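Hi R.,

As promised, here are both runs. First protein below:
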Amino acid sequence: MIAFVSGTVAAVGPDTAVIEMGGVGVSVICTPATLARLRVGEPAKLATSLVVREESLTLYGFAEDDERTVFELLQTANGVGPRLALAMLAVHSPNELRVAVASADVNALTQVPGIGKKGAQKIVLELKDRLGAPDAAVAGMLDAGSAAPAWREQVHAGLVGLGWSAKDAEEAIAAVAADLKESGGDIPDVSGLLKAALRKLSVR
């Protein structure tokens, strides 16, 4: 198992980062929040989880050990693979997921693309004794309904991390949100929303 990667950030994209270690560039798939912390040319250390498939080896990276722990625990639920687990962490923080599972908040889980009501109920049943207790402060904040829409925060952080100004990021997010409202469809995953925001910025 590769527990972490440490080196210089060579590149940052919408859903991946390249960390240079000893002349080798290692591609790591990350959440927007993790990518937002990375700066090209600066040192970085990411906790990692290696997913082995017959046809591929994929490395997932996280700014915090707790994110990696939750990422791996989420995959112990039937039907939750690495991509869905990453999408869950892109929409909700580890503690928000603990709150959702502990309180059987199906609505919170169905905010994640790819999770329907039945799937959310199944995840709650399978993970309620595995994720651990949520942080009390976070639980209280969510109960009060004061948490901002998670995807907006994640996309904003991702855009700023890629070098756009906060003002440009906010305008692009507003444009994407307007498109979503007009289409009335399901919200894509955060990576898809980040790409949509980048397209808005590229035509300005």
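And here is the second one, sequence first, then its structure tokens:
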Amino acid sequence: MRTRGTFCVATALALSAAVGCTTGDTEETGRPSSPTASTPRTASPSATTPAPVNPVSIPAMIQRDHKGSGLELGRVLTRTSAYTSYEVTYESDGLTISGLMNIPSGQGPFPALVLAHGYIDPEIYTTGRGLTREQDLLARNGYVVLHTDYRNHARSDKDPDNDVGLRLGYTEDVIGAAMALRSSGRPEIDTDRLGLLGRSMGGGVVYNTLVVAPGLFDAAVAYAPVSGRPEENIDQFQRPEGDPLVAEIESEHGTPETNPRFWREISPLTYVDRVTEPLLIHHGTTDTTCPIRWSHQTVTAFEKAGKDVELRTYRGEGHTFYSQWARSMDTTMAFFDKHLR
């Protein structure tokens, strides 16, 4: 089992290498003159100063001092013989984020899972929507489940720049949820055993989290995930709908053709060498919302980097996982049991 508390240290140690590999565009504009006996050898500032890090990028997230704390239980939503479900709030990146937490009945402490839901219009979203089946089943099988609403959803604080910033704030909120669980001091939670599960858009949040915060979780699962290349998600979901946000994003950050560096640095696939956790991906072969080829390209990138990744495919299954969900969850629970118990 990975020693808890190594996240910050491991991130710091890996930072220079991870960010350095994204600054290859830096040009050396001068060469120091040959030193003499009276002239000490000095490095050229232009040769040693890296290019500025775009604040909307994976390297910027790697550098950031992530914060998550203040987990508070609110009113009871549901009480069953197997678990009690609460409204919760926690602090993430200076914002108050709402969510739902299921705490199993019986003697803890229990391993904990953070759940990252897929896209639901924030205007209609309510606390806990998107992964209700998983919340129930995982809690019944002895896991504390914290389902984050994300910023701009339900009772969470607002972040007006999140959409133009490629929704990287959702990754901050998942990292914050894990850190809030760790620091909660609640006796029901085993802070040494922490897993992550995301669906659809939440699968992309899983990818980001694994590269930004290696060591924070012990294992991760992605269901029918989006592409690890954000430009493909824009072309699949937003551009065909004429979403005006596309023009805002491209005005702010450029297109993949005019600013390839930005799009390279916003993709978690560029940084899969940082991942330390095993990853399990579930994907249906007839998923037309998130094509299965996206998961194949993610697996290829992980395997090329020598990472522990497994793709389970489900013939004839679409994006919703209605017909084979139970079988996929048996696999998911066996995976979490292996790495968290």
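A quick note on the second one: Residues 7-26+43-340 form a domain with the Rossmann fold fold (CATH 3.40.50.1820). Let me know what you think.

Best,
J.
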